[in-house]
Amino acid sequence: MREExxxxxxxxxxxxxxxxxxxxxxxxxxxxxxxxxxxxxxIICGYHTLIDWDKTSVExxxxxxxxxxxxxxxxxxxxIAERIYNYPEVKSVYLISGAYDLLVTLExxxxxxxxxxxxxxxxxxxxxxxxxxxxxxxxxxxxxTILEKKHNEDEREIMI
Amino acid sequence: xxIPISKTIQDIKPSGIRKFFDIVSxxxxxxxxGVGEPDFDTPWHIRDxxxxxxxxxxxxxxxxxxxxxxxxxxSNYIKHKQGxxxxxxxxxxxxxxxSEAIDIGLRAMINAGDEVIIPQPSYVSYxxxxxxxxxxxxxxxxxxxxEFRLTPQELEEAITNKTKVLILPYPNNPTxxxxxxxxxxxxxxxxxxxxxxxxxxxxxxxxxxSETPHCSIASIDGMRERTLIINGxxxxxxxxxxxxxxACGPKELLKQMTKIxxxxxxxxxxxxxxxxxxxxxxxxxxxxxxxxxxxxxxxFLLNAFKEMNLECFEPFxxxxxxxxIKEFGMTSEEFATKFLEEEHxxxxxxxxxxxxxxxxxxISYAYSLDTLKIAMERLARFIDKLRS
Lengths: 160, 388
What we know:
The complex is a heterodimer. Chain A has helices at residues 2-11, 17-24, 28-40, 78-85, 111-122; strands spanning 61-69, 90-95, 102-108, 128-135, 141-142, 145-146. Chain A is an alpha+beta fold. A four-stranded antiparallel β-sheet of chain A has the order 2-3-1-4. In chain A, helix 2 (17-24) packs across helix 3 (28-40). In chain B, 42% of the residues lie in helices and 13% in strands. Chain B is globular and about 65 Å long. In chain B, helix 6 (126-132) links the parallel strand 3 and strand 4. Chain B folds into two domains: 7-42 and 285-387, Aspartate Aminotransferase, domain 1; 44-282, Aspartate Aminotransferase, domain 2. Chain B is α/β, with parallel strands linked by helices. In chain B, the strands form three sheets. Chain B has a seven-stranded mixed β-sheet with strand order 2-8-7-6-5-3-4, with helices on both faces. Chain B has a three-stranded antiparallel β-sheet with strand order 9-12-11. In chain B, strands 1-10 form a two-stranded parallel ribbon. At the A-B interface, helix 1 and helix 2 of A face helix 2 and helix 11 of B.
């Protein structure tokens, strides 16, 4: 049940307990126990909502920053990653294979704020060698969801 | 002048379901639970392979039997799933959907007056195709108390000295019934004793929800040489519009079928064949994901019926449920019509699939859970009104 449960709530975390139990073919109590276990084990890390902020009047600018760093003896990339992810404006930090080391995503209200973060905070960290900042112009698809979904009529006609 | 019309075709009635669709398309808030095809898009990597075939200019006929690589993949697939070996050269024919395979299979086997046993409720094409092939259809009315499985007694009673072929339609459209290995062994015993042949339509073979996967009757001892397996890509890979199916069986029969195919169809669509190779090679995960969704919807519907106190046996195959509506004292058609008029939900009356479908309704769950939820709210309201 575990994998199927995760797949269902990954797409819809608002589904209620009763419905989950019905579609998975188990009792509500089992679902609840499993959810609690998954939370405790840190497998479920949160229940978020996917918002297309572009459709609101709230200004938000997102940037991807490639960061090259010098790994530190005994701690590899973990220490510098922690220094970066502790800034609340940083949305995600990934260790990447290839031409650079860390991919940092950032959300701010303006270009100015992003550039201030990069020049004042990120670049000045001791082990950061270089940064390359890319601004996101438009989000087509996020977290597996197409944001500008075209409305598709059900065109299936044949009933038998 | 009078337009020439064949007597045989004139006597065959058109399918009566069309009118339901026409009403649905007129109603703004109507929900259809009527269709018999997946609601998923064909997985992108399969479509991509089709596009690639176009780009590469692979737009010619293939060999009559289908692309060799596709026949090899089909052979591997059946070997893997059922443990039976079919030679890609001569024992596998790629057709335009499973439907073509049904048609030419019957035409290749039947002499005028031969009897073809058709258990019903079942897919609407068997009877007309049997008639067009010159056969006399012999109908077995399957029973809800047997979960619409074919019993040995029912089969035995239907067999005469003119019986040539049994059509075995499992997993079943419209009932969702399946036949498990134990059921098939009992049937196989009679088939061997009476020396008849089986056309096993296994188009829904990937969509079963019981603990053991689908078992083909051809995998039972002594049955491979007397079975024609029909299968295809429509239901498992959500590829209905690609029109691609296949038949596997003894080479003597396949040789005759290939002649009809060659003279009437030439070959199945080339693009679809290239895409199908990819479906068989890389589509397992997609099938698994779609099947998981179908099973969730199936459980949802069965639970909804339970809450409404509506009688329904638990179906373990295809994507249909077949609830019983006998308590309301209406025919299936009356019920379906009233349900559509009053609640704007279309479901197919069981009688569309044979007279033994009387008293039942086919509900397809090739629809999103959200759609099914609204439909079940309306069904609950509808039957509450009928009961009060």
